[in-house]
Specification:
Helix content: 25-40%
Order of helices and strands: EHEHEHEHEHEHEHEEEEEEEEEHHE
CATH topology of the largest domain: Dihydrodipicolinate Reductase, domain 2
Number of strands: 17
Number of helices: 9
Shape: globular
Low-confidence stretches: none
Strand order of the largest sheet: 16-15-14-13-7-12-11-8-17
Oligomer: single chain
Mean pLDDT: 96
Strand content: 15-25%
CATH superfamily of the largest domain: Dihydrodipicolinate Reductase, domain 2
Distance between the termini: 14 Å
């Protein structure tokens, strides 16, 4: 079978799981052809560890006719520039979240991709895992009836106690909503459909953060973003969901996501993961665990790239981690962080994605 040659830009913390999966379980449809990083040692180490045949600069990748897809694993502030250059060079692009920093940038990227007939994709692809797909199946089967409401919580006290380089989490393009919101919003959109309207409030708990992890222990970071962000989302289907993302919470007992319908409730697992526990409470009954119906319960980052490759090759027409959903999520995040309070009517309306099949062979995700 023909494979899609991929050039990976950025060999930092998140790259390891991508390299592992793209050279492993998805290696039948994807070939990691080259890697690049501003720190040459990172690219060299990745090439040696994962058997990547070429080390290139990003500029060399753009000129390489053998590379059809650029996987952008750089930091958020670089996403727009890297994505745009790759699209203009005629490459398909899959980007780590978020798609860009502003809605206008994301809109421009989607326009370039459409104009050039290229695919533009974006993480997260965790919604393609066993946990969210099982929830999707239950909702589609009417197990909770018509969705009415829900709650979503991602709350912690930030990353400065464990991440080796946590400063960027408090800069433009990050914060709890841009860092973790994509997982939650993408999962909700795939379960409930497009968002139509948002009411929001946000605040900041601390103006500075002191890093306690190594190697930057003791360094003080200026906080530039809002770190406690609350939104009330109205979906096209009529459901209203509260979402809170925060780096200001020491401890809490709230669920990741719960959705409530006319005939029951569903407990959705952590959308940052591929598996997890799915809980269902049908009318008049308490919650009970539901067996996962789909595959990919382990960390399967890269499944979105594999699905994209299948679409490029014409094996699939169902591109799931697509730019239109990423732009919709970006628009929602920009709305919730753009002002301390207010309401916002969404401009974008992506199509609802097609559910995955329950079983796949050979890592070919159609």
């Amino acid at each position: 079978m023909e494979k899609i040659n991929v050039g990976v830009v950025g060999c930092g913390n998140i790259s390891g799981i991508y390299f592992t999966n793209l050279t492993g379980i998805f290696g039948n449809i994807v070939n990691v052809y080259a890697c690049a990083d501003l720190i040459e040692k990172n690219a060299g180490d990745a090439a040696e560890k994962y058997g990547i045949p070429h080390i290139m600069t990003f500029e060399e990748m753009l000129k390489c006719e053998d590379i059809r897809l650029i996987l952008n694993l750089t930091t958020p502030l670089s996403h727009y520039s890297i994505n745009k250059q790759a699209l203009l060079a005629g490459k398909h692009v899959y980007c780590e979240k978020p798609l860009a920093i502003t809605f206008e940038e994301g809109e421009e990227l989607c326009g370039i991709a459409e104009e050039k007939g290229l695919l533009l994709g974006c993480a997260p692809d965790t919604f393609m895992g066993a946990g969210i797909q099982t929830c999707r199946k239950l909702i589609d089967e009417g197990k909770i009836g018509r969705p009415v409401g829900g709650n979503a919580f991602m709350m912690c006290h930030g990353h400065e106690s464990w991440h080796p380089n946590p400063a960027f989490y408090y800069k433009k393009g990050a914060g709890p909503m841009f860092d973790m919101g994509p997982y939650y919003l993408t999962a909700l959109v795939n379960l409930l459909g497009p968002i139509s309207e948002i009411a929001m409030m946000n605040t900041r708990g601390f103006d500075t953060r002191t890093i306690t992890s190594q190697p930057r222990n003791g360094e003080i970071v200026e906080v530039e973003v809002q770190t406690h962000v609350c939104g009330l989302l109205r979906f096209e289907c009529g459901a209203i969901v509260n979402i809170t993302t925060s780096f200001d919470v020491w401890a809490h007992s709230m669920p990741n996501i719960e959705l409530y319908g006319t005939d029951g409730s569903i407990g959705v697992p952590d959308p940052n993961c591929f598996g997890g526990t799915v809980r269902l409470a049908e009318a008049g009954k308490g919650f009970s665990e539901v067996p996962l119906t789909h595959g990919f319960a382990e960390n399967s980052r890269g499944i979105g790239v594999a699905n994209m490759a299948a679409c490029i090759l014409g094996i699939s027409n169902d591109f799931r981690a697509c730019g239109s959903i990423a732009l919709h999520v970006l628009e929602a995040m920009c709305a919730m962080t753009g002002a301390e309070s207010g309401t916002y009517k969404m401009r974008t309306k992506p199509k609802i994605t097609v559910p995955l099949a329950e079983k796949y062979d050979d890592g070919i995700i159609v």
